[in-house]
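TICKET #2291
ISSUE: user wants both folds in one file
ATTACHMENT 1:
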Amino acid sequence: MRQAGLLRILIALAGLMGAAGVALAAASAHQPDATRLAAASSMLLFHAVAVLTAVLLVERRIIHERIGLAGAVGFVAAAGLFAGDLTLRQYAGHGLFPMAAPTGGTLLIVSWLILAAAALWPRRA
């Protein structure tokens, strides 16, 4: 897939993450004991912005393109995994699979480190 196509997909996914984050924030405000939804909302909203920022940095050639895109894809997958697990626990009483939320959280940490590496890695001329 061409880089421009991937950037557009990441922007669209960030928009979906932002929308889901706002929806989960609203749901958490109207349900008793909905701390899981609040946490899921925060992860989606924060990382939607991180995805958009990584895309912008890649597009402006400030960070290494492939590494930066790997970090952005990691943010999408990890935040979706983390928030999806917490949301399913809230509404269905069970998670996606054992250790899904911690796996998503760990992948978020790794994605932030990947973004840092993208800033430090020498770009090709």
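ATTACHMENT 2:
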Amino acid sequence: MASPIVVVHGEAHREMPPEQAVFSVVVSAADRDRAVVLSRLSQRAADVGAILDRYGPVVERRETAGVQVHPEFKRRGERVTSYAGSVSTTVTVTDFTALGLLLADLAAQELASISGPWWQLRPGSRAGADVRRAAVADALTRAREYASAVGSEIDRIVEIADVDATAPHPMMRSAFGAAEAADTGTGFDLYPQQQTVEARVLLRVTITEPTVLGRGATG
């Protein structure tokens, strides 16, 4: 005779501080002369790189997200009147104490715009594993409660599976303009957003033969 089976779900969630902050910085240029646009873009991108270099290990990673240079027309089909371009860089930072100053320094550059930061846990963070373990423990507790209700105990685990696994809470976005940074001359006050990590599992276990039914029959 097959052993009785109990199927339950276990859930867990934790609020955790972010481990990384990601933001983008875009420098722009426009002029009637394409060569001037290219020269200005090159210089402004180099200035951004120099600022990032000054912050050393605070900057974990920098990546060029896009370079654009395009002609502009007064009307469609007419001759080119000017050129415009931009260079976008995505920056990942792990030391949040210096992040406000870094953002202000970048935003103060000529024709620079900042978007972010987006807060996140590091990819592969152990936070997710801890929450999954907690979800399994919750499922086992529920299974024991069901088994106990019919006078049984858990015999063996048949299956553990993820159910509708949820990623960390969406990251917060904020934007800063160059004019704001230039006026203040100081770093931004930033408040890292807590990250919500959730896990939900399905647990299937066999239980020993229920005794409640037996007691009910004799009564």
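RESOLUTION: both attachments delivered.
EXTRA DETAIL ON ATTACHMENT 2: Confidence is low (pLDDT under 50) at residues 166-184.
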